[in-house]
Amino acid sequence: MLHMMVHSVYSDRDVFLRELISNAADACEKLRYEAIATPSLLGDDPQPRISLTLDADQGRLTIEDNGIGMTAADMGETLGTIARSGTKAFMDRLAADAGKADSQLIGQFGVGFYSAFMVAREVEVFSRRAGADDAACWRSDGLGTYTIAPVDLDDAPQRGTRVVLHLLDDAKSYAERSTVERIVKAQSGHVPVPITLFEKADSEGALVADGAALWLKPRSEISEADYADFYRSVAGQYDSPAHTIHYRAEGRFEYSVLTFIPQTKPFDLFDPDRKGHIKLYVRRVFITDEAPVLPRYLRFVRGLVDSTDLPLNMSREMIQDSPVLAAIQKGVTGRVLNELQKLADSDSEAYLRIWENFGPVLKEGLYEDFERRDTLLGLARFKTTTSGDDWRSLKDYVADLRENQTAIYYATGSDLDRLSTSPQLEGFRARGIEVLLLPDQVDNFWTSIGVDFDGKPFKSVTQGGADLTLIPLSDGAPSSPQAEAGALDSFIAFAKEALAGSVSDVRVSERLTSSAVCLVASESGMDRQLEKLLANAGQLPQASLPVLEVNPGHLLIQKLATTDDANAMKADLAHLLLDQARIADGEQPSDVRAFAERLDRLMRRAVD
Question: Cα(403)–Cα(401) distance, rounded to whole angstroms?
């Protein structure tokens, strides 16, 4: 299992060094946090550091830190079990005091350490936990077994962990200075712990990373490559950032912000917990990896905030309730949304790439964040019945309103192609009315809470009367001959009786121009797509009965209107019209067997 995991999780061998350095940096961060309550853990060695020692003659590479260290028991629990992360266990233990698990570091999945076996035939880990009086060594060849044994204190670091890699024959280049220096500068130059490279254990070291926090440096001193490298580490992603937001806020509260919008969707974007991933530092001391700095609809944003005003001696629970953090939340959220708006105005193609990835998540804010709803509506982009493959803003939509049009019309569903061919759209197309096509589940919710834009309410094309009579037909739109009024009234009365218990009403439609029938919700009823969604989730005891609308200009309706009510096939045809409307809405007939029998009778009569 270990061999399979190592050779399938990682495709680039160089990544092992980044993973081990990240683990070392995490160990130093853990110590800095624990030393807030127990300063004696630092002893006479308060400055965190990471050292890399090369031994080309023996084919060895050593990574050492003076962080929190491990006991023998820690080694068994973390290094001895694949995907058991020591970092995660550490953060779980800290979170227990606050009553909630609210943090995760680089080592969330507990597999980074094992990437060492891509380049090593044997790995030794010597460690001494801060404040402990003993040390231990974990040793394995990566073939399925390991040993843990106590060692003399002289053979272990004074505090922290030393990882010794005995390199494979085809990996000896990782004991060469040029190779290691290149990898560190390319992948780990951003870590907030100094990294020193030694060509021999007794040689003078060379500083290859200064440990200066990237987020505290001026933007002018940071390259795009530096930002990309830092993003990959902080976000756990392997792409490059689509947009970088880096600034320092000054005034009543001072804090530094470095956040990124990914190019690709994070794997946990739709995690039910909808947790954010913003790290919180206080004066460069790590506090938590899931600080509630941004609202949940911005959870795709990755990065960190470093405050100079939050006190270090507060519990995590108290920090989250702090008015300082509340001010940071408001400031950072406003800045992120403002940056998105500036990008939308200056580089629409770049913004649309972000919207295509994260639009469904941003739209959650339309439902949850009343204060910023107008801003989010301005950021929203939609596919419509007139836009083709292009995206449209609400500002564009309102600018193109038809004569006498007083609402923003929309259609919700689960499939964009099916939405675009819905029969309920026919009357709107005939009048040149643009309709928003909303295929995301969240669209069913934010459109149902009385949202408006520029004074124009949102109105579903499948709910209530269409009210289209005041909007003129487009030039060239055909007008269908209407069925004779008395005969049509008679058929509608017949259909109401025949379909009683299946529909709440049968009426003439303003929506239809080419289809015979469609289903809509009543004026006071819930939008049909929202109702189906809630019913499927068990949130409604049963769905309400729909309204069946008929097209008086359709040849089939005209024929039925003049058919004798005593005709045995008329009731079958009324039921088949209802099932046809259900199928057009992406549903099944309510009684599949009865549908098949009616269709069979109709086909036999047609061939007689």
Answer: 7
